Each structure stands twice: as structure tokens, then as C-alpha cells.
Amino acid sequence: MTSAKSGGRRIVLWRHGQTAWNLERRFQGSTDIELTGTGVAQARRAARLLAGLRPDAIIASDLQRAAATAAELAAVTGLRVSHHSELRETYAGVWQGLTHEEIIARYGEEYAAWKRGEPVRRGGGELETEVADRAAPVVLEQAGKLPEDGTLVVVSHGGTIRTTIGRLLQLESRSWEALGGLTNCCWSVLGEGARGWRLLEHNAGTLPEPVLGDDD
Predict the structure, then answer these.
(1) Known catalytic residue at 16
(2) Average confidence (pLDDT) over 5-28
(3) Which residue in the list 72, 89, 110, 192 is annotated as catalytic?
(4) pLDDT tens-place string over residues 55-76
């Protein structure tokens, strides 16, 4: 990534740092879990890199793992963070708090249907399209306030980021799974093109690592 700002507005969608539930492959959803010490260190490292993009604004989920991640970028840029509950992770009902293995053992058919791209209320919670319905408008509203070459950083969660990218790229919802998950504290970049938003970078910020958490 470069620090040059040219060619239209950018949206940087940044996943929060590591949590204990990520390590345990335990579905967090909207449960409010804090960062581990490693997660804080990840956020500080990533913040130094993202500051090179000279962002104009930072918005974040109000869940503490995202808010704490955003605070590290605010500390190095001097920008104020605007928190939005609409940027929270997918509410997944009875799946929340279960490990990946427990979900497959108890709700295997539901999990398989979701992986096939079918509209599934995982654990009785939200549809992916409903997550996009609440998150994408907030991102677009805030991006609309940028200068013509401005950069918005959105600090959120793996599932919410994926659905938001899918909506902004105008992909069919059953294809959103084709967007691979984000590693903790990695990010994706959308750029404004003549025909809408384009994916410029995905899961940037580190060498490839296993994706831990809600996005597997």
C-alpha cells in the first residue's frame, strides 16, 4: 500500500485484533469480547501502517474488540472515532459462544446450507443480507462525507466486513462467501471507480495466516 491519495475515495475495512474466542474458534457474533494482549499488539502494528494512508475519518463498531482496535489508529492519527452499533458482527443466536466443532455437530445441516450460499438464519439470528442492510448504508453515508480523494477507515468484524464488501460491489448474496475471510487486524480496500466501488486489496497487512473466528 502507498500513502499517495489519488484516484477517488477509498474505504479501508479493517477487522479487529485477536480475542480469546478467536483462538478457541468460538463464534462471537454480537457477544462483546475484549482483545487479548496479542490483539492489542496487532492493532498497534496495523495502526502504524494504516496511518500511512492518511485517513480522513474513522468509524467503528461499538463492540469493545473493534472499538479498542480503532482507538490505536486514533492515537497515531489524532482522529476521533465515531462508533456505530450497525457495524456490529452478525447476531447468530444460539450459535454464539459455541466452537466451530460444536456448531457442526449440533447444526450441521444449517451450517452446510449457509456454506452453499443459501439464506440461513444461523442460530436463529440475522441473515447476511440483513447485516449488509444495516452496515453498508452507514459506510456509504460516511464515505459520502469524504473529500474527493479521501480515505475512510471502517473498523468492524469479519462477517460484517464481508457482507458490506459484497453489497458495495453489487455482488449477489450467494456469492459473498467467495470473498475469503480476514485475518485478525488485516484489512480490505475499496476504491471508487467510474462504475461504482472496486476491490483494490483484500486481507492485506500480513503474510497469509489462518483465519481465526467467525468467518470460517
Answers:
(1) yes
(2) 91
(3) 89
(4) 999 999 999 999 999 999 999 9
> Smallest Cα–Cα separation from 186: which of 206, 157, 171, 200?
206
Residue 164 and residue 156 in contact, taking contact as beta carbons nearer than 8 Å: yes
Q: What is the pLDDT of residues 115-162, one digit of tens each?
A: 888 999 999 999 999 999 999 999 999 999 999 999 999 999 999 999
Question: What's the per-residue H, E or C state across the chain?
Answer: CCCCCCCCCEEEEEECCCEHHHHCCECCCCCCCCECHHHHHHHHHHHHHHHCCCCCEEEEECCHHHHHHHHHHHHHHCCCEEEEHHHCCCCCHHHCCCEHHHHHHHHHHHHHHHHCCCCCCHHHCCCHHHHHHHHHHHHHHHHCCCCCCCEEEEEECHHHHHHHHHHHCCCCHHHHHHCCCCCCCCEEEEEEECCEEEEEEEEECCCCCCCCCCCC
Please indicate, yes or no, whether the overall pTM of this predicted structure exceeds 0.90: yes
